[in-house]
Amino acid sequence: MTPAAASRSPDLLTLFRAFARMVQAHLPQQSEASFEATALPLPSGVLRVRVARRADAGSGVTLDLRPESPPEVPTVESTAFGALVVREGNGSEVLAARAAVAEACARLAADPRFAPLRPVPPSSTPDDRRHHMMDTILARRLEIGVSRCGSFVFDQADEDIGRQCRLGFQDATTGTRMTFLLLGPALHRDDAQLDAGPFQLVVVQDAHGAGAAELRDEPALATLPGPAQTLVQVVRFLLARSLDSTVVLGGPWLPAAPPPPPGLRDLGSTDGLNASTMAADGAWRRFFVPFEAERDLLRDIRERDSWGRIRFLMHGELECCHIQPRGEDRVHYHRPLRRPLPHPGTREHPDLWTMLVAADSTAPGSVPPTPPLSPAPGFDDVEPPLLMDDREVILGATEMLEARLRWERERAQDGDVLIFNETCVPRIMGEDLHRVKRAHVALGGAPLVDLDIAQQGPFETLAKLVREMRDMVLARTTVAQAGIVEDGVALVGYPDDGSHQELTALLAAMGLRCTTAFLPSLGRESLMETLRARYVLCHPGSAWRRIVAALLAGEHTRVLTPPLPYGFAGVRGFVKAVAQETGRPTDTLDPLVARAQEALRVDVPPTLGVAYVTDVAEARRLALADGNFGIPALSFLGDLGFSQTVLVHIPPDAAAPDDVLESVRRDVDDVAGAARISVRPFRTVEDLRRLLGDASFQAVYSQMTFDRRLYACGKAAFSMADLECGLWGAHRTARRLADRCRWSGPGRWGAYVREKGWNA
User: What DSSP string runs through 479-534?
Assistant: First the structure.
């Protein structure tokens, strides 16, 4: 390699480190001493920049340089390396980090060595968009025999136009060869695989002495040595930045779409807080914890369905149970809990319930009940442990997993499937768990499905789990063999809060048969029934819609996303949308809904009010059904008659704070239909304490169990677990929150609560 070639095309890994150093160099001097910058390439083509405190890696600012500018998001800044979007952070640190990244992009824009990191502009020639992809990939980017990624040198580039591209990398030290194939539709390896087409990515490893092997999924990638895994990640990043948006990579390597940044359109639930930010400096004003609630979705796995038992195995440290609560009597971060309530007719206005059920225009529709759970093991049949203590963490836990899988094989029943959560601890320890799992299957053990936590977030993890279970279900029988249910409806993503029976009755009155409810509760039988249904009523959240579109919708499926039926107005909107989309009449149903609304409405005095403590992004999340697990709290509680106040944090150094506050007011007013929601700013702990002492509201939203911050200020707490779907759910919600607002306990005894959580 000549010096000139080396200067043109250095090690790709060096470019990411150099980019991070350039960002760090342009931080303010006081920040540079205490902050460190990193740059991580993601398979989706996002270059993620993290600026974090050296002493506290859990805090800091995260920014994304995206290949394409997200539509309708006003906070995007165009740079030579992509659209710059702030993903996480607050205050002056965000401004400093954003300025440093923008300056680094400007300084490196003309440097030819950094060309591989820049997105390729779309071709202006239509014929070039789907042909001559190799020219696009290589243009001003990679050079054969020169470009490299660690120990792998780029040495091959072939193309059969419109059919196949081949990129090859060779590790001269180990003899390992990695080949990346872009296969056109005619050459796809497996038509049953997820096909977002038209080109499918297949990775082939040819290890010295072991022959060639195709890597078809993420678990196979995890078996590669570290340098090869890094190469795959970098190449996927380069491909996502090199190919035109009309050339989409399909197959099991399809990278999940990155969660959108805060904005007013299609705001995904995957943005938000996680456990690390709860310990950051701003924890005193954090009352929403969407990430933790999303992670709890992965716990809703049925223990049995008509196909057999679903055994859940979690292999990790004992303390993992402290952050993943499980069980009927455990707090689930206050998301909509699974409440096995009796049907509404046994509690409130049974005559109305009887009339609604009698309005069924077809055979009675129903969601099949979950069969009884498998019996717990007896005293002499205790499950071998999978949770490690200090000894296993230090000495290894492979034998522990082998013993547990042997125990499962000895007590296996027909139809068993094992869902295996590896957790992060065995990965950090370097345990070879894939070998143990392969041996288990080879010995005739129940099939294993991986709950792979090494994804971009809980929804991506859930999507991968659904994909594996879908492949398992379709291997047993196809949708065509099982038969399409022409008037069948599957509910996907709807909270299991006791409202399914009511929704079933509403649909039946329109001549539709609710055949199943799938997700967040996960089972094989309900998955197949979802695939068979003609109509899928999908939760309007963007993450749920992605799962449905990619995995649960066939050619026969009509996917509908009606507004969620929270509140009386929400139920009417739900019925109207479903009827219009399916061409069903509502002549019988409309008078029943109106009568039920009149009978079930609770008289809420205007003196009863609730409040929310948010920042600007969370206030917008409240204003969208997509933003807070689909619960339109502002419109829902306004429909019930509660006065509402939004307390918005405005950073002390925010530019144009009045404009920011006015934009939040417009957002919430659009939801309320008029200026009925009070929006009040706060900047400091003292400001928030003073506002929480206000007498205009009595209950405040919080996802924290026993939130001392609220009780010490004389306020009660409520959460998404208190809000229920449906007509009868609206009745129960109104009564529940009215009682919470009238509760005298916080006012009388709050002064005795020891204050915690005010870490300014």
Answer: HHHH--EEEEEEEES---SS-HHHHHHHHHTTT-EEEEEESSSB-HHHHHHHHHEE
Residue 376's contacts (CB-CB under 8 Å, 6 or more residues apart) are: none
Residue 478, SS3?
coil
Sign of CA dihedral 592, 598, 601, 607: positive
> Which residue bears the tokens 């400001």?
687
Q: What six digits make up the tokens of 273?
A: 């807080």
Q: Which residue has the tokens 């809990």?
A: 337
Q: Cα torsion at 407, 411, 413, 419 (round to 10°)?
A: -20
| Torsion on CA atoms 708, 710, 716, 719, rounded to nearest 10 | -90
- Count how many residues are written for the chain: 760
Query: How many degrees, rounded to 5, is the angle at CA 457 between CA 451 and CA 461?
Result: 25
DSSP tally for the chain: helices H, then strands E: 29, 27
Place of tokens 């080879």: 442
pLDDT of 698 reads 94
Token pair listed for 399:
């034998």
* Nearest alpha-carbon partner for 514 in 528, 529, 527: 529
Q: Measured between alpha carbons, how far is 626 from 635 in angstroms, rounded to an integer?
A: 13
pLDDT digits (tens, 9 = 90+) for 277-318: 454 567 788 888 766 666 666 666 777 777 888 888 888 887
DSSP 24-93: HHTS-HHHHHHEEEEEEE-TTS-EEEEEEESS-TTSSEEEEEESSPPTT-TT-EEETTEEEEEEE--THH
- Asked if 668 and 623 touch (Cβ cutoff 8 Å), the reply is yes
The contacts of residue 117 (CB under 8 Å, 6+ apart) are 15, 16, 19, 47, 81, 241
**How many of the other CB atoms lie within 10 Å of CB of 323?**
11
Identify whether the C-beta of residue 173 lies closer than 8 Å to the C-beta of residue 155.
Answer: no
Map tokens 């001392």 to a residue. 708
Q: Hey, what long-range contacts does 286-289 have (CB within 8 A, 24 or more apart)?
A: 287/612, 287/613, 287/614, 287/700, 287/701, 287/702, 287/703, 287/704, 287/707, 288/614, 288/618, 288/621, 288/628, 288/701, 288/703, 289/333, 289/703, 289/704
Secondary element (H or E) of residue 157: strand 152-160
What are the DSSP calls for 168-225, one per residue?
A: EEEETTT--EEEEEEE-GGG-S-TTS----SEEEEEEEEETTTEEEEE-SHHHHHTS-
Compute the distance between CA of residue 65 and CA of residue 67 in angstroms, rounded to an integer. Answer: 7
Instruction: Please give the order of strands across the beta sheet that includes 448-451.
Output: 304-305, 308-314, 417-421, 448-451
What is residue 670's predicted lDDT score, i.e. its pLDDT? 76
Structure tokens at 523: 């089972």
Residue 314 CA to residue 385 CA, distance in Å, equals: 10
Q: Is the pLDDT of residue 369 over 70?
A: no
Residue with tokens 């299609």: 266
Give the span between the Cα atoms of 426 and 437, in whole angstroms. 14
For residue 535, report the phi and psi dihedrals to the nearest 5 degrees.
-115, 135
CA distance 422 to 427: 8
pLDDT at 373 over 60: no
User: How far apart are the C-alpha atoms of 557 and 533, rounded to whole Å?
Assistant: 7
pLDDT interval class at 263 (50, 70, 90): very low
**DSSP letter at 737?**
H
CA 651 to each of CA 58, 255, 616, 733: distance values in angstroms, whole numbers, following the listed order: 20, 35, 10, 34
Which helix (DSSP H) or strand (DSSP E) does residue 158 occupy?
strand 152-160
CA quadruple 483, 486, 491, 496: dihedral, nearest 10: -80
Tens of pLDDT, residue by residue over 441-488, are 899 988 888 877 666 567 777 888 888 888 888 988 899 898 999 999
Distance of alpha carbon 170 from alpha carbon 293, whole angstroms? 44
CA pair distance 527, 543, nearest whole angstrom: 17
Q: What is the CA radius of gyration of the chain?
A: 27
